[in-house]
Specification:
It holds the Pfam family Phage_portal. The protein has 425 residues and is of the alpha+beta class. Helices cover 41% and strands 16% of the residues. It has a three-stranded antiparallel sheet with strand order 4-3-15. Helix 4 (51-66) packs antiparallel against helix 6 and helix 5 crosses helix 6 (101-115). The chain has 14 helices and 15 strands.
């Protein structure tokens, strides 16, 4: 009882330092919350409500979710796609009874974008022909999941809190973990920690705009009196009457009548200041820079249309490709058995993002067919068209190509000279 009273007195003393509406920094640190220089509190959850962070998370999550992860199998001297493997169905059709593959991949990437880590519990099949293979992928709350290393055995464990409040300890191979940039290699750091101050400034701007428009966008100014002075009651009366006539959206366009030669002088509208606009623009660029999302995707339209395609290709190569590689390597290691890893692997299909417009695609397909790389049926498959039968599976090579060691023979045959004739030596 005495110990409980001591704890209660300590809590009461510490709580009085800031109160619930303005909690002290030690309490914020306890829950992983940081105060910013702007006075705004920015958490990972509140950061997702920032329009710029939300847009980046939506873009990256959507791109990761919409593109297919395909399963390939090495067979003999070639490679073929295996659409019947359970991993192919989990990543391409249905990840669990409640989520499509798109929803699962999008959610996981949003977790990586905001929290720096995306966790999913792997449910294994325990019977039947697919015994020992993954059956479902269940996303875990990244704010309630952590990585631990056993100091004795060196094993990696995941500790998570389920929605029902149950704390569960999961083995390393039971968790699919897609992580962002990391300091330890075990757990990604949240990008929000890098831009927390910037997000605090943006939150302050939003509050300012809300307050500004709630007052009917009335600008600041002064009422000048030509002669004499007013006592305090008269000043208060004049101020109140002016605010009644000019505050609120319903009064935004009413005409004000000034008595006794009063003159209104506007002190300027803050939103007309170019610096305010530049600050907002800078905030968008800062968030986009962290996530490597080009400005035109965030509404910055100062990019020429002719450069859009080049920037789109650069976005796929510099932003999406590292994310795809991260996903592929984690899926290969966690979703296949050790024996399967020698024959199976996953690969994101990004051909749709790289093929450009119809004119560029036509030129590309023509070149691939001419070199014998693609067949007609393979091109039609890329364009989501039916094949044309066995004739479409043939490879073609242009007759204009010949190896160097056959060049002399080819030129003589073209000139009608036989190799055994005197002209042919």
């Amino acid at each position: 009882m005495k110990r409980r009273n001591m704890v209660q007195r300590w809590w009461d003393r510490r709580s009085m330092e800031g109160g619930l509406l303005s909690p002290p920094q030690w309490l914020l640190d306890l829950f992983g919350v940081s105060n910013t220089a702007s006075g705004e509190i920015v958490t990972n959850d509140s950061a997702l409500m920032n329009s710029n962070v939300y847009t980046c998370a939506s873009i990256l999550g959507g791109d990761v979710g919409k593109l297919p992860i395909q399963v390939f199998k090495k067979r003999g001297g070639g490679i073929e796609r295996d659409s019947n493997h359970p991993v192919s169905k989990l990543l391409g059709t249905r990840s669990n009874p409640y989520m499509s593959a798109y929803t699962f991949k999008e959610l996981m990437q949003v977790h990586v974008t905001v929290w720096g880590n995306g966790y999913a519990n792997i449910e294994w099949e325990t019977s039947g022909p697919y015994n020992g293979m993954p059956k479902a992928l269940w996303p875990l709350d990244p704010s309630k999941t952590d990585v631990h290393v056993d100091t004795i055995t060196g094993e990696i464990w995941y500790v998570t809190t389920l929605p029902n409040g149950e704390i569960r300890k999961l083995k390393n191979f039971d968790v699919l973990h897609v992580k962002g940039i990391s300091k330890s290699g075990l757990k990604g750091i949240t990008p929000i920690s890098v831009i927390r101050e910037e997000l605090g400034v943006q939150q302050s701007q939003r509050k300012f705009l809300g307050s500004f428009y709630s007052n009917g966008t009335a600008t600041r100014g002064i009422l000048k009196i030509p002669n004499g002075t007013l006592d305090k009651p008269a000043k208060d009366k004049a101020r109140d009457e002016w605010q009644k006539a000019n505050s609120g959206l319903n009064n935004a366009h009413r005409i004000a009548i000034l008595d006794a030669g009063m003159e209104y002088q506007n002190l300027g509208m803050p939103l007309n200041d170019a610096q305010f606009i530049e600050t907002s623009k800078f905030g968008i660029m800062e968030v986009g820079k962290i996530y490597k999302v080009p400005g035109y995707k965030l509404g910055l339209t100062d990019v020429k249309f002719s450069n859009m395609e080049n920037q789109s290709l650069e976005y796929v190569k510099s932003t999406l490709q590292p994310i795809f590689t991260n996903w592929e390597q984690e899926c290969d290691y966690k979703l296949f058995t050790e024996l399967e890893r020698k024959r199976y692997y996953t690969k994101y299909n990004v051909s749709g993002e790289l093929r450009g417009d119809s004119t560029s695609r036509a030129a590309y397909y023509k070149e691939m067919i001419a070199m014998g790389v693609y067949t007609i049926n393979e091109v039609r498959e890329l364009e989501e068209r039916d094949n044309i039968g066995e004739m479409g599976d043939k490879h073609f090579v242009s007759l204009n190509y010949v190896s160097l060691d056959k060049m002399d023979q080819y030129q003589m045959l073209k000139a009608g000279i036989s190799k055994d004739s005197p002209e042919g030596g």
